[in-house]
Write a structure and sequence with these properties.
The complex is a heterodimer of chains A (61) and B (231). By secondary structure, chain A is an all-alpha fold. Chain A has two helices and no strands. Classes of the chains: A mainly alpha (61), B mainly alpha (231).
Chain lengths: 61, 231
């Protein structure tokens, strides 16, 4: 074990800003990418269900 | 029994296969990520020269490797799509580009945050850093070119040409540390000599590399499925 306390872990031997700056930004990128894809998919599904509904209405007439 | 090897090159059957495979890769990437971070932060010792700052390596190196590797894979599929007119190959290439660009950005970002405490500067215009920046521009160029063309098949072809021409940059990045004098250190891991770091550091890094592989596969399959739906 390298760390004797939680604050020591976050301090990273004085390099906390650089180490956590790297990890946090990477985390944001990954979460952002996943959200962007699911958002892209949701928009698409909405469009398709809209078209589907319109077709149903037209078929009824 | 004959197996139809081309079955999954049709977007429709690929779509359902990818849907089944995504959870497996998501699971693998989460497990590997947790294991890699554990080894990286709690098992690997403090570096005798760089102190704790070296722990950036556990994302910097995997991200940099993925940025180069994904580019080659993207160019390969784009080239196959261009040569054989296969739709799915071109869709895969378009699905890889954003993830590759993200890893390139992460490699540059973590490199800057590592460079500041170790070299005393965020950025230098040296061979390794500059060629990696060019890689980012290649990804962005590929994506914006494809986005600018309305007809998806024409966009595929135009993108494939950029991707294939840009491949020349990959060996430049890789060998830049040998060809020029640069601030960036040489390869830490190579085939024909013992790695220049502690075993636990190396293991942590390799687990993180595997995790980013699994992550990339999951995300790229997910994006390919969306692209199939879009067309």
């Amino acid at each position: 074990m390298n760390w004797s306390s939680v604050s020591e872990f976050f301090a990273m031997g004085g390099y906390g800003f650089y180490v956590w700056g790297s990890y946090v930004v990477t985390f944001i990128c990954i979460v952002g990418e996943i959200l962007l894809i699911s958002n892209r998919r949701r928009t698409l599904e909405k469009q398709y269900s809209l078209i589907h509904d319109l077709n149903k209405k037209r078929d009824k007439k | 029994m004959t197996i139809n090897w081309f079955k999954y090159s049709s977007p429709a059957s690929f779509y359902s296969l990818a849907g089944k495979m995504i959870p497996i890769f998501v699971f693998a990437s989460v497990v590997l990520l947790v294991a890699g971070l554990y080894v990286g932060f709690f098992v690997a010792p403090t570096d005798f020269q760089q102190g704790e700052a070296y722990r950036i390596i556990f994302i910097h190196v995997p991200a940099a490797w993925m940025s180069m590797f994904l580019y080659v894979v993207m160019a390969f599929w784009a080239g196959i799509g261009l040569a054989f007119n296969t739709r799915l190959s071109s869709m895969l290439a378009s699905a890889i580009a954003p993830t590759g660009a993200m890893f390139t950005f992460i490699a540059l970002w973590t490199g800057a945050l590592w460079g500041k405490p170790m070299w005393g500067t965020w950025w230098v215009w040296d061979a390794r850093l500059t060629s990696e920046l060019i890689l980012l521009f290649l990804y962005i160029g590929f994506m914006s070119l494809q986005a600018a063309i309305d007809d998806p098949r024409r966009a595929d072809k135009a993108g494939a040409i950029i991707a294939l021409v840009g491949v020349v940059n990959i060996p430049i990045i890789y060998f830049s540390v040998q060809w020029w004098n640069t601030l960036h250190q040489g390869a830490s891991v190579s085939v024909n000599q013992a790695p220049s770091m502690a075993t636990t550091m190396l293991i942590g890094m390799l687990i993180m590399v595997l995790a980013s592989w699994m992550y990339s596969i999951a995300v790229i399959l997910k994006r390919t499925r969306v692209i199939i739906l879009e067309r």
